[in-house]
Amino acid sequence: MNIVVCVKQVPDTATERKLRSDDKTLDRDAADGVINELCEYAVEEALRLKEAHGGEVTVLTMGPDKATDTIRKALAMGADKAVHLVDPALHGSDALSTSYALAQTLKKIGFDLVILGSESTDARTGMLAAMLAERLGTPQLTLANKVEISGAGITVQRVTDYGFDKVEASLPAIVSVVEKINEPRYPSFKGIMAAKKKQVQTFGIADAEIDAAQVGVANAWSEVADFAVAPPRAAGTVVKDEGDGGVKTADYLASKKFI
Amino acid sequence: MKVDRVSPTAEGHDLFDLVRELAAKEVAPRAAGDEVAGRFPRDVFRVLGASGLLGLPYAEEHGGGGQPYEVYLQVIEEFAGAWLAVGLGMSVHTLSCFPISAFGTDAQRDGQLPVLLGGDVLGAYGLSEPQSGSDAAAMTTRAAAVDGGYSVDGVKAWTTHGGVADFYTIMAKTDDGISCFHVPAGTEGVSFGAPERKMGMRSSPTAQVRFDGVKLPADALIGDSGQGFRIAMAALDGGRLGIAACAVGLAQAAFEAATAYAKERRQFGSRIADFQGIGFMLADMATQIAAARALYLDAARLRDAGRPYGTNAAMAKLFATDMCMKAAIDAVQVLGGYGYVEDFPVERYMREAKVLQIVEGTNQIQRLVISRALTKG
């Protein structure tokens, strides 16, 4: 089975993140880049499926040069090879154009199963899996906390507000996973050493037959109109219990429309 | 605060990332609780072992990581900052593997090192005795030659991992001087005293190891018979660098705790970090830490280049551990009353720092080593 895991490098949530003043895109140079946490769960799930069913795990990332750090981490965890889609023309692509660029690349490299984290910690759109499935004409099985493969069939347990749905489809398919699905392994030092020898193929937009007029900040369908620094946190409200603490707390929650 | 590290090996940076992740997720969260409970984190060492981190400075052909000391010591520093017992435990384990790696026969190296470095086992090192500390040559533990090997009698003291280690690398007197031996933990006649009740590092057992007619095969001898003192001193040179790295990591943790607090705590309408009395303390701590780090890395580079480095290792151990003690005391001072209570980690750092001025040669012995090297001949 040919499994492709889409991973994304995001700014470390522990550091200060900011947008660029010129084109209002994320300032990727200002913060340390780390692998998006949910992508680690996606890599783990791919490795487990490979261990159970055989095949190969390919990591696919779209991002600037420094995203190679994220690729190496996924390879150190145990993925077999990687494809890095990197091109200045892709800078500032929104979710829709990113899905186009990744879909074009996936058509080139081929797949039986594509696994993604259900969202990233930077943009948080959570739409990429659905968009990819639509563009590739494959079933989408999103928000999975359990994945089972049998022959050409795939079944996932899809997390919902009321519990879960069981969703079945046939391969090839697109799956997105939530953090409850597994516990990602740490890379080992041996894995780090092995990763140095693994193949990382670099694709520009021409290699993936990506139309420059459909990607990049100038062609994005969504636009950041304005942004401002978050205001400093204001002092909290203290409810003093004088026999009526419960009522006061309930009134406060009601005033904020929580109850 | 992330320490900006450089590595001479390409894989070093990815290794540092892995180490930071493990330190933050697997090591640091356990430190305070296990220290209070006096609970040895054997499982944490298993996680580090499974990640291939218990043999970093040894040859890859023997199951090691093939990393220079310059990289290995920075790994120790990161773990010591998260939890001294773990950083120091790694250093002791590495030290206990050194004699076989550097002085063992090919058969010993090929047969044993893959196991010792493989991550499943933990080592301990026995040189000191109740009456033989700084004066190591005054040891009384004796390995008598008997048919087919040796019979060992005596007591080793202050053994880190005593009672929980899987093997003990010990020094004992033989007819021709001092010799080095490899003793598996389960060997008949090996027993342990109760763990010492220490000021700090209570999670890491320190105990006497007793040898009562312990029969060892001939190939338990590491190096030549009578070569043990030289082996012990060579092992300690590397071990001292491990302690220096531990001290820098612990001082860095104390500095970070003090800085974070000083930026939050407000008095007289200002952050206390903005008062010069506090700001200058933080500046001095940061400067001293940077100097100590540079000193141990300089000694490590000499070692990696195959140059003599023993004097430099003693300087690094001396400077880094005295620096660490002061940084930990100052961190408590920055936190004031909060620094003196267990709700913040700095009181623990202060208790832990003290031991680093004592182990792998007291700082008085370090001065002796340095001054003798300077005035030789």
TrEMBL record, chain A:
<dbReference type="GO" id="GO:0009055">
    <property type="term" value="F:electron transfer activity"/>
</dbReference>
<dbReference type="Pfam" id="PF01012">
    <property type="entry name" value="ETF"/>
</dbReference>
<feature type="domain" description="Electron transfer flavoprotein alpha/beta-subunit N-terminal">
    <location>
        <begin position="23"/>
        <end position="212"/>
    </location>
</feature>
<dbReference type="InterPro" id="IPR014730">
    <property type="entry name" value="ETF_a/b_N"/>
</dbReference>
<dbReference type="GO" id="GO:0005829">
    <property type="term" value="C:cytosol"/>
</dbReference>
<keyword id="KW-0813">Transport</keyword>
<comment type="subunit">
    <text>Heterodimer of an alpha and a beta subunit.</text>
</comment>
<dbReference type="InterPro" id="IPR033948">
    <property type="entry name" value="ETF_beta_N"/>
</dbReference>
<keyword id="KW-0249">Electron transport</keyword>
<dbReference type="InterPro" id="IPR012255">
    <property type="entry name" value="ETF_b"/>
</dbReference>
<protein>
    <recommendedName>
        <fullName>Electron transfer flavoprotein subunit beta</fullName>
    </recommendedName>
</protein>
<comment type="function">
    <text>The electron transfer flavoprotein serves as a specific electron acceptor for other dehydrogenases. It transfers the electrons to the main respiratory chain via ETF-ubiquinone oxidoreductase (ETF dehydrogenase).</text>
</comment>
<dbReference type="InterPro" id="IPR014729">
    <property type="entry name" value="Rossmann-like_a/b/a_fold"/>
</dbReference>
<comment type="similarity">
    <text>Belongs to the ETF beta-subunit/FixA family.</text>
</comment>
UniProtKB/TrEMBL annotation, chain B:
<dbReference type="InterPro" id="IPR006091">
    <property type="entry name" value="Acyl-CoA_Oxase/DH_mid-dom"/>
</dbReference>
<dbReference type="InterPro" id="IPR009075">
    <property type="entry name" value="AcylCo_DH/oxidase_C"/>
</dbReference>
<keyword id="KW-0285">Flavoprotein</keyword>
<dbReference type="InterPro" id="IPR013786">
    <property type="entry name" value="AcylCoA_DH/ox_N"/>
</dbReference>
<keyword id="KW-0274">FAD</keyword>
<feature type="domain" description="Acyl-CoA dehydrogenase/oxidase C-terminal">
    <location>
        <begin position="226"/>
        <end position="374"/>
    </location>
</feature>
<dbReference type="Pfam" id="PF02771">
    <property type="entry name" value="Acyl-CoA_dh_N"/>
</dbReference>
<dbReference type="InterPro" id="IPR036250">
    <property type="entry name" value="AcylCo_DH-like_C"/>
</dbReference>
<dbReference type="Pfam" id="PF00441">
    <property type="entry name" value="Acyl-CoA_dh_1"/>
</dbReference>
<comment type="similarity">
    <text>Belongs to the acyl-CoA dehydrogenase family.</text>
</comment>
<dbReference type="InterPro" id="IPR037069">
    <property type="entry name" value="AcylCoA_DH/ox_N_sf"/>
</dbReference>
<dbReference type="InterPro" id="IPR006089">
    <property type="entry name" value="Acyl-CoA_DH_CS"/>
</dbReference>
<keyword id="KW-0560">Oxidoreductase</keyword>
<dbReference type="GO" id="GO:0050660">
    <property type="term" value="F:flavin adenine dinucleotide binding"/>
</dbReference>
<protein>
    <submittedName>
        <fullName>Acyl-CoA dehydrogenase</fullName>
    </submittedName>
</protein>
<feature type="domain" description="Acyl-CoA dehydrogenase/oxidase N-terminal">
    <location>
        <begin position="10"/>
        <end position="119"/>
    </location>
</feature>
<dbReference type="Pfam" id="PF02770">
    <property type="entry name" value="Acyl-CoA_dh_M"/>
</dbReference>
<feature type="domain" description="Acyl-CoA oxidase/dehydrogenase middle">
    <location>
        <begin position="124"/>
        <end position="214"/>
    </location>
</feature>
<dbReference type="GO" id="GO:0003995">
    <property type="term" value="F:acyl-CoA dehydrogenase activity"/>
</dbReference>
<dbReference type="InterPro" id="IPR046373">
    <property type="entry name" value="Acyl-CoA_Oxase/DH_mid-dom_sf"/>
</dbReference>
<dbReference type="InterPro" id="IPR009100">
    <property type="entry name" value="AcylCoA_DH/oxidase_NM_dom_sf"/>
</dbReference>
